[in-house]
Design goal:
Blueprint lengths: L1 E5 L5 E6 L2 H4 L5 H15 L59 H17 L3 E4 L10 H10 L5 E5 L4 H6 L6 E5 L5 H6 L3 E4 H11 L1
Parallel strand pairs: 1-3, 3-6, 4-5, 4-6
Antiparallel strand pairs: 1-2
Helix pairs in contact: 2-3
Length: 207
């Protein structure tokens, strides 16, 4: 499969052949689903958890006597049926272990995703991306306009500080690198823009 390499102003530059073993694979839905679930699960910060009845503060004294009040029996205000009480099935994130997916499965799932993007013509290759000033979000908007895009996910081979800073406040543009790519964002992106250098690195990493 061949794809055109564009300049960042949208003009055609040349063509390149996409490696079949990366961009021409069948979509493995089960494997991709496992990869996305693993990524989302491991992305949780786990800095806050719910409290069960034993972790809620207070409740050492019986709220009222057992009989004679006409009210239902109650032993503690920490009961899950009380407002402010503990959760019945509390999620304690510190006890949840991260999920793992081996390298072979990861590469196979990513090849499925990149193949889907190429097949659905959602992949755009540019020779390079140059941003002169990191404070100029208008330069990123110009690139999107020149490429005929409303929204896009830029995937780079390495950090580009100027591009990251210039697109930070733009909802229509997200920037990621190969080493920290979000597979769910990759799947959901309307268009994915990569550079020639990113394409070469993808071929090395996923081959």
């Amino acid at each position: 499969m061949e794809i055109e390499i564009l300049n960042q102003n949208g003009s055609g530059d040349s063509k390149v052949s996409l490696a079949d073993d990366i961009f021409n694979q069948e979509f493995n839905q089960d494997l991709v689903h496992q990869l996305v679930n693993t990524y989302i699960h491991n992305s949780h910060q786990r800095t806050k958890g719910q409290k069960n009845r034993s972790a809620v503060r207070g409740g050492g004294k019986k709220p009222w006597k057992q009989k004679g009040t006409g009210r239902a029996r109650a032993g503690t205000i920490r009961s899950p049926i009380w407002r402010g009480g503990g959760m019945t099935f509390a999620h304690v994130y510190s006890d949840i272990k991260p999920k793992k997916i081996n390298k072979k499965m990861y590469r196979s799932a990513m090849r499925s995703i990149w193949s889907m993007l190429a097949e659905e013509k959602r992949l755009i290759v540019v020779n390079e991306l140059n941003i002169d000033e990191p404070v100029k979000s208008s330069q990123v908007k110009t690139i999107l306009t020149d490429l005929g895009l409303n929204t896009a996910l830029f995937v780079l081979s390495a950090n580009n500080d100027n591009l990251i800073k210039a697109s930070k406040n733009l909802r229509e543009c997200k920037v990621q690198t190969i080493n920290s790519i979000d597979p769910s964002a990759l799947i959901q992106a309307e268009k994915v823009v990569i550079t020639s250098e990113t394409l070469n690195k993808l071929t090395e990493v996923l081959a």
